[in-house]
Amino acid sequence: MFDPYASLVEVVIFLVAFAVVYLTTPRIASWSTRRGIVGTDVHKLDKPKIPEMCGLAIVAGLAVASVLSSQLLTEHAHEAAAFLGTVLIAGATGAIDDLRPLGPRLKPILTGLAAVPILLLGTYDPHPVFPLVGTLRLTVVYPLLIPFAIAIPANAVNMLDVFNGSMSGTLAIVSVALALVLTLSGNIMPATLAFALFGSLLAFYLFHRYPARVFGGDAGSLTAGAAVGALSVIGRIELVTIVALAPYIMNAFYGLASIGRLYERREIKSRPIRLRDDGLLEATTARNAPITLSRLILAEGPLGEKQVVRIMLLLTALSSGLAVLTFYIPKVT
Fold first, then answer.
1. Is residue 313 part of a domain?
2. Is residue 200 part of a domain?
3. What SS3 class is residue 283?
4. Full domain range(s) for residue 189
């Protein structure tokens, strides 16, 4: 049933999150530049230095939106509190990793701890719904899986944050799909928070797209990925989220399978792609280089960075569309 007030709140929260990120991103970029927190854009011939850790703007946008949501939808304030707690823990983990790398084992553990607010506030239902199967009773097991539901998308998103606009653009599409499904399912607060995530990512994308003026760093990618995981649990759309994140999951699976262990991009000596002298990107032929989504995309031949990201956006749009359709399968069967 259409709820005018809930719809108005979603629009307001989207605009607030967008405004906060749009206004704070340049300021955080200036702060990062002054303190030498910069990264090299390795996919450009001139190797420009780009301010890092600007994903803190996404943390700020989601934090302000969560607090405001709790005031506008007081009956669901505990859901906003759980989401905010998850975002802040993931953001803090990412910021620490940006300043002092945590390593491929400790980082997933700390991002898994971002599930604690959800567990403490009980904003989950241990009865997930799956197509053709129906409702599962996972009273004991489900709470144990929630840390994985946060850590896996957080780190999968982090692994795909390799090109200008790849993380912010693709995850903005995912957040739209989640917002639509949550709205249709009547999950008012999770839907509102999904619109907050969309507004935050859309604003950040304006600075992050090619040619990037900012890098989100782990502070941005871990926060955004953990937010998606939190929405899936709080909103009871676990399967929908898995389908929407298919490109991320594929990228992470092939990368981990080809290396055979957890790894950090910083420690990989043989890169999956390389920059040619003409500015195009091509897949490497090195056997010990990880297999990634970008390497698979470039397997047919060299492309520009913008073209690679465009393909990623199209793949994510496809998976997100299928995710929305997945929402209707239990109702049909």
1. no
2. yes
3. strand
4. 4-237
Q: Residue 281, SS3?
A: strand
Which residues lie below 8 Å from residue 285, measured CB to CB, with a gap of 6+? none
* Strand, helix or coil for residue 38: strand
* Nearest Cα residue to 71 out of 13, 32, 23, 144: 13
Q: Write the single-letter amino acid at 312.
A: M
Residue 316: HSE in the Cβ half-sphere, 13 Å Cα cutoff: 28
Low-confidence ranges of the chain (pLDDT < 50): 332-333
Q: Mind listing the pLDDT tens digit for each residue in 175-231?
A: 999 999 999 999 999 999 999 999 999 999 999 999 999 999 999 999 999 999 999
Specify burial of residue 267 (Cβ count, 10 A radius: 0-12, 13-18, 19+). exposed
Measured distance CA(22)–CA(18) in Å, rounded: 6
Contact 52, 96 (CB under 8 A): no
How far, in Å, are 56, 212, 228, 249 from residue 223 at the CA level?
A: 9, 19, 9, 17
Number of domains in the chain: 1
